[in-house]
Amino acid sequence: MAKKNTVRNQELSEDVQEEMSDAVEEKVKVTRNFMRTLFTPTKLSTYLVTKNLPFAAFLTLLAMLYISNRHLAERTVRRIDYLGKEVKELSWDYKSLSSELMKLTTQTEIAKRADTLGLKERTEPPIKLEVVKTKK
Fold first, then answer.
1. HSE on the CB side for 118, CA within 13 Å?
2. Separation between Cα atoms, residue 69 and residue 63, nearest integer Å
3. Phi then psi for 72, rounded to 5 degrees?
4. What are 88-127's pLDDT values in tens digits?
5. Per residue in 52-71, pLDDT tens?
6. Helix residue spans in the chain (DSSP H)
7. Hey, how many other C-beta atoms are within 10 angstroms of the C-beta on 116?
8. Cα-only R_g, the chain
9. Nearest Cα residue to 16 out of 26, 3, 7, 25
10. Nearest to 38 by CA among 26, 47, 48, 28
């Protein structure tokens, strides 16, 4: 079963169909002529090249900016990864040194180190010294 030519569920007349097919054929001819004129040696002359040279230079500049921006972004990502690893390593060092310091500053460890110096831990509580002021 052949499908009818319709626009918005209304059947097209033969005149409208002919106008549409003529318009399509005209567009095809224009496109073919454009492609032919674009690639013929006479049209691809120095005039055409010099006419489009600023645009080509602009596109080249944009490409170079895009590439340099990409390199900068990748370098930044690599640096962030490196610094993240370094922060983790320094965090581990901090935690290990902190726990070692906490162990060394306990009362028993201090007492052990004081014994090697000949000092002994006091067993009686400290006494309070009072200074008596006399009036003259």
1. 0
2. 10
3. -60, -45
4. 999 999 999 999 999 988 988 888 888 888 888 888 888 8
5. 889 999 999 999 999 999 99
6. 14-39, 46-104, 107-116
7. 7
8. 45
9. 7
10. 48
Amino acid at 45: S
Distance CA 70, CA 62 (A): 12
Tokens of 111: 């007492």
Give whole-number Cα distances, 88 to 27, 45, 101, in Å.
65, 63, 20
Residues present in the chain in total: 136
SS3 call for 7: strand
Any idea what DSSP says for residue 120?
A: -
Write the single-letter amino acid at 48. L
Q: Which two tokens stand for residue 54?
A: 């600023």
Specify the residue for token string 């006399």.
Answer: 134
Q: Which amino acid is at 25?
A: E
Token pair recorded at residue 25 = 């054929």
Q: Which amino acid is at 52?
A: N
Q: Which residue has the tokens 């370098």?
A: 75
Report the distance separating Cα 109 and Cα 121, nearest Å: 12
| Half-sphere exposure (Cβ direction) of 29: Cα atoms closer than 13 Å | 6
Amino acid at 132: V
